[in-house]
Structures are given as C-alpha cells and as structure tokens.
Amino acid sequence: MGREVELDCFGNALRGDADAPFVFWLVGPGGIGKSALLRRLVDMVRAEGRGLVELDGRFLGRDPADFEDAADAFVSVPGTVLFVDSFEHCQWLETRLWQRFLPRAAPGALVVLAGRLAPQPQWTADPAWAGLLQVRELRPLNGGEAGALLEAASVRPERRDAVLRFAGGNPLALTLAAAADSAGRVGAEWTPSAEVLRTLVAGLVGEVPSAAHRRALEVAAQAHSTTEELLAAVLADQDASGLFQWLRELPFIESTPLGLYPHDAARETLMADLRWRAPTAFQAMRQRLAEEYLRLLREARPERVRAVTDDLAPDRRHRDAAAVRAVGNAAPGLRPSRPRGTAAVARPRDVRRLRLAAHPPGGRLR
User: Fold this and answer.
1) Residues pairing with 256 in the sheet
2) Beta bridge pairs of residue 133
3) What is the C-alpha separation between 180 and 106, in angstroms, rounded?
4) DSSP secondary-structure letter at 119?
5) Which residues contact 99 (CB under 8 A, 6 or more apart)?
6) Residue 294: which residues within 8 A CB-CB, separation 6 or more?
7) 3-state class of 275 per DSSP?
8) If DSSP codes are grouped into helix, strand and coil, which group holds residue 224?
9) Which residues of 70-104 are buried (b: 16+ CB within 10 A; e: fewer)?
10) DSSP character at residue 100
11) How far apart are CA 220 and CA 227, in angstroms?
C-alpha cells in the first residue's frame, strides 16, 4: 500500500516518457519497504512483457566481472530492466556502475537500485547525470496508509492504536505486529513479543559493531535528540566523537538542528527491546539522562530554559515518565499539556516553574 508517487514515476519510464529518469535509486532504513516496492516494480515490468534482471547485493561476489556477467542482458537486450536489491552490500560497485557499466546500457533499458545508503555526492552532482538519476528516499507510511495495512491484515480495531504507536509507519514493524496480533488473546492489550523485537532489531538496525555502539543506540533511542556532548556526558568512558559519527551515518537516524533523531519505529524497537532484555539497564539509562537534563536545566541561561524543557517534557510517544522523574524534585507538578500523539510543548506555567527551579531568587538550585 502507498508509494503511488514512486509507482507512477516508474510507470512513466516504462512507457517511454522522455523526461523520466533512467536510474531509480530507492534509499531508506531497514524495514521501510524497499524490497516490497521492488517486487511491485518487477510485477509492472513483467506485465509490460519486458525483460528483466534481478540481483541481490547480499549474494554478489567481489569480482566486478561476475556482476557484469549476471547483468549482461542489460547491455545486450533492448528494454531490459536491471534490479539490484540490498545495494549497500555491494556499494563498492557504485563508481564502476555510473562511470563504466551503466553508460553501456541497451536502448530503452532502465535501472532500479535499492539500499540503505544514498549514492555518492559525486554521482548526484555530475551534470551528465542530471535528469537521468532520481534518488527517492522512502519515508514511513502515513497514518491512513498504515491504518489501511492493519485493516487489510485483520488487526483487531481495539489494538490498532497500540500497534500504530509502536510501528510508527514502518512497513516491516506493521507487518510483524499484524502477524503477531493474530495469535494474541482477544481483548488483551497489544505489546510486541520477544520474537517481534528480535526480528525488528535485526531488520531495522542491522549489525552493531560493539557493546559501546549498542549503548550509544540506546541513548539515542531514549533521548529526545542526541548531541555529541550528550553522548560524552552519559557514556563518559567511551569515544563519544566516534560513536556520534557512527550514529549520524545510520540510515534510520536523521540529523536535525537539535541533534540526531531516530525514525519512530527504530526508536520504539530499541526502547522496547532494552526494556524487555535488561529492565534494570533501561531504568538506569533513563535515570542517567534525567540527571544530565537536570544539570542542563540548572546551568541554563534564562533564555535557554524553554529549549531545555522541550527535552524534559514527557515525550510525545512514550507514556513512561521515568526519564523525567528527577525533574520532579526541582519542578513538582510538571505534566504533559497536549493530547497524546502531538508534539511535546510545556505549558507557560510549567516553563515558569522550571525557570524558577533553575534560577531561584538569590541563587541557583542546590
């Protein structure tokens, strides 16, 4: 469901539209629906009666000649469409592709590449490829599309809101949750099972190099936004600079003016997995973050208090308020002031209370 823009654009290319791209690059984090979209595009090619070559980067050897042999029809048979899924596993081919192989395409040929990583800037900036290469970042399904998927999967109406809060529009998370729901008890509140979490961590996050990298992921999952300074404060015994650089390159992490922000499904999955796998560590991490936020609040200049309280306010998606419990000592009575599911905004009286807590008359809070 969804992806109508991508389907329409590819359909135009199949029909020979002179303005349509020659190379379609689909990029997005694990579970976002790249492979599912590729299958729909393959069906479109078959319906047109055109030849196709389907390759998977996970199973390609390291010899470029092997790739060219497997994709020979692309350069020898007019109208052939080349599909390469999981391209991040053969990203080393990229330069050779755009400089040497793709320019040899047979008349009417098309290319669809799908992976977790975007193409090199040198390729996208090459004037010779202007209009020929289209990069499409796949985003989570919107609320209507996600709801339609759950309805089509016969997820019980009373459970759909819980599933949507957890999955955040990620097709893999939605599909797994829908499958798990069919085995659940009628009337029981839906929560992700250990099996669902294990599959999602592997699918969304992939390989994690070390325990330090996993801890950095857990910080990013629980913090509203993550900066290098926050990592250094919470993980004082680790290389915060290296971990921050690793985080910002992950396909499910977005860089924002306030820091790094995980896609919703990745955030929910990492939090739920840690909560299930190591509940004591989960609470300890939340407490450590709360202590750091409280330190920032105590030291903040008056004009910065509002920005700090945006992170202190209970998150828009998580009902667990353990991460802000320490703030209660400084500002008792802080409560969310918005319907669940909207952005976190502190009420004016909460901001005043926090400002007084951080800068009480006669000196700072002790």
Assistant:
1) 259
2) 23
3) 46
4) P
5) none
6) 312, 326, 327, 330
7) helix
8) coil
9) bbebbbebebbbbbbbbbbbbeebbeebbeebbee
10) I
11) 9
Using CA atoms, how far apart are residues 197 and 200, in angstroms rounded to an integer? 5
Tokens standing for 127? 């004037």
d(CA 139, CA 145): 12
The pTM score is 0.59
Backbone φ/ψ region at 363: left (φ over 0), alpha (ψ -120 to 50), beta: left
* pLDDT one digit per residue (tens) for the chain, 366 residues: 678 999 999 999 999 998 999 999 999 888 888 988 999 999 999 999 999 999 999 888 888 999 999 999 999 999 999 999 999 989 999 999 999 999 999 999 999 999 988 999 999 899 989 899 999 999 888 888 888 888 888 888 888 888 888 777 888 888 877 776 655 544 456 677 777 777 777 777 777 899 999 999 999 988 888 999 999 999 998 999 999 999 988 877 888 777 898 877 778 788 888 888 889 988 888 888 888 888 877 777 776 666 566 555 534 444 334 334 444 444 444 443 333 333 333 334 443 443 444 444 444 333
What one-character DSSP code corresponds to residue 127? G
- 365 by Cβ neighbours in 10 Å (0-12 / 13-18 / 19+) ranks as middle
CA 194 from centroid of its chain's CA atoms: 20
- Integer Cα distance of 169 and 148 in angstroms: 11
Length of the chain: 366
Cα 99 to Cα 150: distance, rounded to the nearest angstrom: 43
Contact between 102 and 74 (Cβ < 8 Å): no
What's the Cα-to-Cα distance from 45 to each of 35, 82, 104, 105, 341, rounded to whole Å?
Answer: 15, 10, 21, 17, 40
Helix (H, G, I), strand (E, B) or coil at 210: coil
Give the contacts of 183 (CB within 8 A, at least 6 positions apart).
none
Q: How many whole angstroms separate alpha carbon 355 and alpha carbon 352?
A: 5
Rounded Cα distance between 24 and 41, Å, is 11
